[in-house]
Design a protein that fits this description.
Shape: globular
Order of helices and strands: HHEEHEHEHEHEHEHEHE
Low-confidence stretches: none
Strand order of the largest sheet: 5-4-3-6-7-9-8
Mean pLDDT: 96
Number of domains: 1
Largest sheet: 7 strands, mixed
Helix content: 40-55%
Strand content: 5-15%
CATH architecture: 3-Layer(aba) Sandwich
Distance between the termini: 43 Å
CATH class: Alpha Beta
Length: 253
């Protein structure tokens, strides 16, 4: 009797998952829904909507949908190392560290930024989650910095990488080339702010990136010659509102 109840519960769970998958696949074909989502991201970018959120007290500067996606990925992959390029206020580091804390074990977060501002460093270092965090100051594509990252990642069984620093094509492509070998099979290489390519031309007049020169164009170039990764369209179809279309790369080899 107990076995029958357990099987019934498992069937209900699987049925729920299948229903979710069917909905998600339909979202990817729903032009009105996709257009509405893109318009929201476009209209919310200039007023800095993504700057309004914090994670355990630190500004995270991400859309809530992408935070949820990263939570799902981390829980699924269970990495013992998460590497993030681009620290800013440190909310991302705190978020990743808190997820690893929930997973248990000795998982670590490694953050790289060319300029870790003192007031941000102080707040990150005094946070309870700092016990899982290491920071490196320097360019993410500098040879010495990359070697430090490689040394840190040595012997780590499950590595996840998130790229969120300088958003020019050249810089992100170099990051992809340097950091992709660290990502382990079954994990993810996530490239944020690929949405820049989908914005109107001239949308970022005060930035060195824009349409034709951004993280998404770097991903497209990277994918031409790399068969270890595939773009996980399911994630962006599920989120609809995301700054990382074509940016969730699943490592398959």
């Amino acid at each position: 009797m107990i076995l029958i109840k357990v099987i019934d519960l498992m069937n209900q769970i699987e049925q729920f998952k299948r229903e979710c998958m069917r909905r998600i696949r339909q979202y990817g074909k729903n032009k009105k829904l996709l257009d509405a989502a893109r318009l929201f991201v476009q209209e919310s970018t200039i007023p800095k909507y993504s700057y309004n959120f914090t994670w355990l007290g630190r500004p995270i500067i991400q859309y809530p949908q992408d935070i949820i996606a990263m939570q799902e990925i981390i829980w699924q992959v269970k990495p013992n190392l998460i590497i993030e390029t681009g620290i800013a206020h440190g909310g991302g580091l705190i978020f990743y560290a808190s997820m690893l804390e929930l997973l248990g074990g000795d998982g670590q977060v490694l953050g790289i930024d060319i300029d870790i501002r003192e007031h941000n460093r102080v707040e990150i270092e005094r946070h309870p989650m700092f016990k899982r965090i290491t920071m490196i100051e320097g360019s993410s594509i500098d040879e010495d910095v990359v070697q430090k990252v490689r040394d840190f990642a040595k012997d780590k069984k499950r590595v996840l990488v998130a790229l969120d620093s300088m958003h020019t094509h050249e810089h992100v492509l170099k990051e992809l080339e340097l950091y992709s070998p660290l990502v382990t099979k079954g994990s993810y290489l996530v490239v944020f702010d690929t949405i820049i390519e989908d914005m109107p031309d001239g949308f970022f007049p005060d930035r060195p990136w824009g349409k034709g020169n951004n993280p998404k164009t770097a991903v497209w170039e990277f994918m031409k010659n790399n068969d270890r990764f595939e773009i996980d369209k399911e994630i962006e179809n599920k989120l609809l509102i995301t700054v990382a279309p074509d940016g969730y790369l699943r490592c398959i080899k």
